[in-house]
Write a structure and sequence with these properties.
The protein is an alpha/beta fold and about 300 residues long. The chain folds into 2 domains: about 200 residues, HUPs (Rossmann fold), CATH 3.40.50.620; about 90 residues, Pantoate-beta-alanine ligase, C-terminal domain (Pantoate--beta-alanine Ligase, Chain: A,domain 2, 2-Layer Sandwich). About 35% of the residues lie in helices and about 20% in strands. The chain contains 9 helices and 9 strands. Strands 1-4-3-2-5-6 form a 6-stranded parallel β-sheet, with helices on both faces. Strands 7-8-9 form a 3-stranded antiparallel β-sheet, with helices on one face. Strand 3, helix 3 and strand 4 form a beta-alpha-beta unit. Helix 8 packs antiparallel against helix 9. The longest helix is centred in the last third of the chain and has 22 residues. About 35% of the residues are buried. It catalyses: (R)-pantoate + beta-alanine + ATP = (R)-pantothenate + AMP + diphosphate + H(+). It is an enzyme of class 6 (ligase). This is Pantoate--beta-alanine ligase. Its EC number is 6.3.2.1. One of its GO terms (biological process) is pantothenate biosynthetic process.
Length: about 300
């Protein structure tokens, strides 16, 4: 049986509060839909931690800049419900709102931003009565993906805050493929005193090692084969660290050569502290190697954690 679908904020709150009155704990898995096995693994993990789980399916325009076309994001809502039905056991509901930035007045250009030399614009600067409050985790959002996507993490932090306030979960599960996002949400929850446990779930991979992503469907067969250089180069770097190589410059050069040799266009390769996301020059404690690269028109991200104590 397909999960119940809730479309509006008030109904979602009522459902959550009814569950809490029954003594049930609530999990939340935020998604933008087009679910794959990686998403489903997050749902399964949430179901092991809570009595019921809410899967939000919402393509958030607030995290897209004016140069990004959110209409190209893949969608298969019917297929998503079928996949969730196979694993839910009646313990999953879907929150699928139409527009979480619509307050009954004019809402104009809520995906504005990123223009004018990186200047971030409020959606109300074009006139209208739309959303103008944004959440920013100021230091953690600056590096890695934040360099090339300047409005992305303010949009993520804001929509996750809205979902937390609407769903009122006890636990929220995020995939570690979006490592910076996971750490930003952790920090936001700590700083703003949300009573929510944030769980990071390990990266789900295809059999050949490619990190699962809704974007993978846009890769040609040739591009997909070339994109395997991401996970392979990360594995090589981790093996090199195990053999005693700790120079981050050398490790990054090795990864970049692998990506460029596979016709990838590198956005960044960074080795950062797992908690602070600050770059390191020598690996002496736990780090994460983060990669973003383009293959064709598709931007892919991946990472690998390295836990060492030297």
């Amino acid at each position: 049986m397909e999960p119940e679908v809730i479309r509006d904020k008030d109904s979602m709150r009522k459902w959550s509060r009814a569950m809490r009155l029954q003594g049930k704990t609530i999990g939340l898995v935020p998604t933008m839909g087009y679910l794959h096995e990686g998403h489903l693994s997050l749902v399964r993990q949430s179901l092991t931690l809570t009595d019921v789980t809410v899967v939000s399916i919402y393509v958030n325009p607030g995290q897209f800049s004016s140069t990004e076309d959110l209409s190209t994001y893949p969608s298969d809502f019917s297929g998503d419900l079928t996949k969730l039905a196979a694993i839910s056991g009646g313990k999953v509901v879907v929150f699928n709102p139409k527009n979480l930035y619509d307050y009954g007045g004019e809402t104009k250009k809520i995906n504005d931003g990123g223009g004018g030399g990186g200047r971030v614009l409020s959606c109300v600067e074009e006139g209208g009565l739309g959303h103008e409050t944004w959440i920013r985790v100021e230091r953690l959002e600056k590096g890695l993906c934040g360099k090339s996507r300047p409005v992305f993490f303010r949009g993520v932090a804001t929509i996750v805050t809205k979902l937390f306030n609407i769903v009122e979960p006890d636990v929220a599960v995020f995939g570690k493929k979006d490592y910076q996002q996971w750490r930003i949400i952790q920090r936001m929850v700590r700083d703003l005193d949300f009573g929510i446990e944030i769980v990071g779930s390990d990266i789900a991979r295809e059999k050949d090692g490619l990190a699962m992503s809704s974007r993978n469907v846009r890769l040609s067969d040739e591009e997909r084969q070339r994109a395997l250089s991401i996970s392979r180069s990360l594995a090589m770097a981790k093996a090199s660290v195990a053999e005693g190589k700790t120079s981050c410059a050398e490790l990054k050069d090795m990864i970049i050569k692998q990506l460029v040799g596979s016709a990838g266009r590198v956005d960044y390769v960074e080795i950062v502290d797992q908690e602070t996301l600050e770059g390191v020059e020598e690996i002496k404690s736990g780090v994460v190697i983060c990669v973003a690269a383009w293959f064709g028109t598709v931007r892919l991200i991946d990472n690998i954690e390295i836990d060492v104590s030297l």
